[in-house]
Task: structure prediction
Amino acid sequence: MENFSLILAIVVVTALAFDFTNGFHDTANAMATTISTGALKPKVAVAMSAVLNLAGAFLSVEVANTISKGLVDETGIRPEVIFAALVGAILWNLLTWLVGLPSSSSHALMGGLIGATIASAGMGAVHGDVLVTKVLIPALAAPIVAGLAALLATRLSYTLGKKADGKAAEKGYRAGQIASAGLVSLAHGTNDAQKTMGIITLALVAGGAVAPNSDPPTWVILSAGLAIALGTYIGGWRIIRTMGKGLTELQPQQGFAAQTSAATAILASSHLGFSLSTTHVVSGSVMGAGLGRKGGVVRWSTATRMLVAWCLTLPAAALAGAGAESVTDLGDWGTAVVAAFLVAASAAIWKISRREVVDASNVNETEEPAGVVTTAIAAVTPPPTGTVTEGLTATIPAPAPVTAAPDPATPPAATV
Result:
């Protein structure tokens, strides 16, 4: 019984550690555009997002129930399986954070859980219908729907703002962007904090601490909300840089449209119990907003790298979770080995990240280099009408000097 109590405690602590990584990994979803457009200072933005993430954790438990009751057969799951799933999810979160890629923490968690469950109880323990209808289909549809909504909203914003005073309109859009960023943060807490609630509740059911089909206890809701809020306040500055500067250059109108579209999609999915990836939604809305402005372009090289990471998240986390489960299945010493590996790997990733520090002081300083497609689009874009600027004049080659025709009376020069 002592060993069981210890493994259950380890699972809860590891789940909260994952929730912490989820917080700083996904801070960019709510605040990247607000920071990149200058609507809020970086530290103020992450503090506001942290408070609203905590508040959002108390709004619903539908997504938590999808994780704890729907995705896998909770009656055949041991606490060690859930621990292995969390190891796979945390490692994927940290690796993608290190390279600044906004991948899905939600899919990392579900991938780790699926892989560990299959390794422990076989394919039959995974509910395929729930996986398809509440995970895979939303993953495909979310960025497309959010992107189209943001594109239309951006064009509508510019159309309605044509006759408005420029400075007054920009100030209004900045205020609207702050409000919409707060709504995204609230939605993120409602959706993502619940995933950790669900995984802890699943562990409590597996350990016999709560009855099957139970909702998350209050202490689970509070601890999950605090963990994701703390991670959000730390700020995932590497991913904020990619989301805010790497995909496209946004103006306040675009930031407002992107965040409003994303918040609407996330809140709707939370109400329906869809375990939606906020990363997919916000990334899609940012790209849609980038294309919605006339002359705006998306850096497709960055978007392609993000898409590759999205496709790899579920299988990579599943493989890591299955591998960890194979080791924990060897007994207590196997669980200790996996825990030691997780701590060592996390420390190594953090140490590597210190070679190039990205924080609140330099998050907006360096932009992602333009890709091949973006460069080609810029090359064929016609120059603006009006006065030719000095920089443009320098790019126009001077006409070749015209030489006078030779005098037929003059004999040609002798050649040596």
Remarks:
- The CA atoms of residues 238 and 357 lie 9 Å apart.
